[in-house]
Amino acid sequence: MRETAIVVVNYGDTGLLEQNLVTLAEKRPDVGVVVVDNYTSPANAADVDAICARYGWGAHLSPTNLGFGGGMNAGVELAIARGATRLLLLNPDATMDEESLSRLEAHVDAEPMVAVSPRVLMTAGTPWFEGAGLDVRDGTMVGPERLGEPDIEPWLSGACLMLSAVLWHRVGGFDDSYFLYWEDVDLSRRIREAGGGLRVVGDAVAVHDEGATHGTGGSRAKSDLYYYYNVRNRLRYAQVHLTPAARRRWVASSPVQAREVLLRGGRRQFLDSRSGLWAAAAGVRDGLAGRWGPRGGQSPRHDDALGGRDDRPLRVLMTYMQPLPFHNPYVKMHDQSLERTGQVEVLHFDWRTALSGRYDVVHSHWPEDIFAASSPLKAAGKRVAAAAWLAVLAVKNIPVVQTVHNLELPDDKDPIKRAMLRHIHAIAEHRILISDTTPPPDGPYSVVLHGHYADWFAEHPKPEPIPGRIAYVGLVRRYKNVEALASVFTATRESHPEWSLEIAGNPSNDDLAEAVARILEGDERAQLLLRYLEDTEVVRVVTSAQLIVLPYKEMHNSGTVLTALSLGRPVLVPDNATNRDIAAEVRPGWVHTFSGELTAADLEWAMMAVADQPRKPAPDLSRRDWEVSAAGHLEAFRSALQSRGEQ
User: Fold this and answer.
1) How much is the pTM?
2) Where is this region: Disordered (predicted)?
3) Pairing relation of β-strands 152-155 and 547-549?
4) Which residue of 273, 454, 489, 608 is 20 to 30 Å from 3, comparing CA positions?
5) Nearest to 386 by CA among 406, 403, 372, 405
6) Domain 4-214 carries which CATH code?
């Protein structure tokens, strides 16, 4: 495991990657490297992919330009997944020697809640960054000589910044709504608000060739994007962090601050072009209007920022209907997370909307549900409607994004329905995998982990676990093997009279419900609640138990596992790659596994293992935040649209 990872966001030309990264990586082979390519062209992405393959680096090839903060977030997520505990965020036009890297590592190891920066020099040896401050009275940037004065807040540059994975998770990474510039100022403030610190390590040095990425050819002039985002994001920072009175002061000084930003490029630039003026003016306009992608959403495209494009939300048609109170919280949280970005309007499936509504993308989850019917006549009508809908998608060139919830398609007995489901699967432009262990499909795909339920259940009362209580919660289906749990539990009547069992959830049919009840008949330790559960009941069943047992015959992913972990209860699940992966992700002691058929011995050792559960650190579900999920889905939707020539 490589504990330090260098994370670089590349945009455009790839020459700096080999020029600046290779030497350091060769001198420190124990250091991992992750490169994020912010999309410019397929050829450029292929170059990045080839370079990373050549040197054994990790690559994240984004189908869109995520901006600096969004790109770093994606790269850090990959680096942490590969085992990194220390993160060096580095511009592609910056480099450092191995001694300076070691000094930064030593500081982070000694104080994991402190982010550190080296002194950063220009190629000529002049200082580029030795610390900086922000005057919170009016938003003026100041030099390190004023640090320590009242109203001067310190910040560290994102051009070369090291911090621990612990600190990164504590603050949640960069706020990608900034897109470019000021995201490091924002991160610095959130680090301090989280109880962390900022430090410039004087005996560590990096070299930064700013012109190499800004493409100024030696001129002082900056790009229009530099002017736009620096001016706009000053007001973004004010909106996030300042009181209303302080925001008003910053707004009043916006023209003066915009002039200061423009003059960083010198006065001679205006002899050739006034475009910088218009870019700065657009930054003031959009900052005052609050035009920025919400955190976790897609940041504005460059041409959007400077005017001239319809930026309405994407209209996404889900293949499930409007969720009802007893429906899986997953779909409700999925909808909410997307709509919170401000860039997606969620539409729920009904035949009128599907056939005649306006939408940009179809998001397929469980398409078999749209065929559900209470009579043969209605089933025939839905098959006709489905055929018409598939024709609409083809004529309107509407892409389908499919979330892969199960490894196999439903094996329906109706050949027409089965053929239509296979067709929906075949036309998917992009697939979303909700587990790292799902086999990669043919064609474009991305991994967006199943989100947690901690926020969903946060307001419900959570009783203390009942000693010896085992529980099953969730829909009762044949493949979930609930009868096996019931049989194994009854076999412990004499050996463990102190145990109790609760099975709660709606059965697929009466025969299955009766079978489970017959097995447990006469065992006073067991109780059944075989119906749809309210959220309060789910929380009560889960948190009353010491152990949640899911004895599935086959398990690729399970929302119930995440429900239990979100509520702080350990699980016993079948041993497979997916569950081993979750066990490694969430910290030891939370996911226990059994091989083959569930036995009484499996229950015994699992119950022994969870006896001291209250003393264990809470499960780590940070990779499953819904903001992360929304960003991944939005990226997939835009990728599918690009493939269809819509963007």
Assistant:
1) 0.49
2) 289-308
3) unpaired
4) 454
5) 372
6) 3.90.550.10
- Mean pLDDT score across all residues of the chain: 87
The C-alpha torsion from 411 through 414 and 415 to 421, rounded to 10°, is -60
CA 307 to chain centre: 29
The answer to whether residues 569 and 465 touch, using CB atoms and an 8 Å cutoff, is: yes
Q: Where are the alpha helices (DSSP H) in 111-223?
A: 165-171, 183-193, 210-214
- Looking at the domain 469-624, which fold is it? Rossmann fold (3.40.50)
Give the tokens for residue 293.
Answer: 């992608």
User: Tokens standing for 286?
Assistant: 């959009």
Reply yes or no on whether the pLDDT at 486 is more than 90: yes
Cα 211 → chain centroid: 32
Distance CA 637, CA 360 (A): 9
Please, where are the H alpha helices in 172-253?
183-193, 210-214, 224-241, 244-252
Identify the DSSP state of 507. Answer: B
Tokens matching residue 343: 């860039």
Question: Beta strand pairing status for 500-504 and 526-529?
Answer: parallel
Q: Please, what's the b/e burial string for 357-367 (b: 16 or more CB within 10 A of its CB; e: otherwise)?
A: eebbbbbbbeb
Distance (Å, whole) CA 474 – CA 456: 16
Q: Is 427 exposed, middle or buried (0-12, 13-18, 19+ CB in 10 A)?
A: middle
User: Tokens in use for 335?
Assistant: 């909808």
Domain limits of the chain?
4-214, 224-303, 314-451+626-643, 469-624
> Residue 435's pLDDT band (boundaries 50, 70, 90)?
confident
* Residue 51 pLDDT exceeds 90: yes
Question: Could you tell me if 206 and 120 are in contact, meaning their C-beta atoms sit under 8 angstroms apart?
Answer: yes
Q: Is the pLDDT confidence value at 185 over 60?
A: yes
On the question of a common fold for 4-214 and 314-451+626-643, the answer reads no
Beta-strand runs (E) in 195-327: 197-208, 314-318
Distances (CA, A) of 125 to 160, 207, 212, 221, 371: 16, 8, 16, 21, 69
Looking at the DSSP bridge assignments, the partners of residue 361 are 316
Phi first, then psi: give them for residue 197, nearest 5 degrees. -135, 170
DSSP 375: S
302 has which bridge partners?
A: none
Residue with tokens 């973004």: 236
Pairing outcome for strands 86-90 and 160-164 = antiparallel
- Specify the pLDDT at position 245: 87
CA dist., res. 644 & res. 640, Å (int): 6
| Joined tokens for residue 62 | 């984004």
DSSP 8-class letter at 476: B
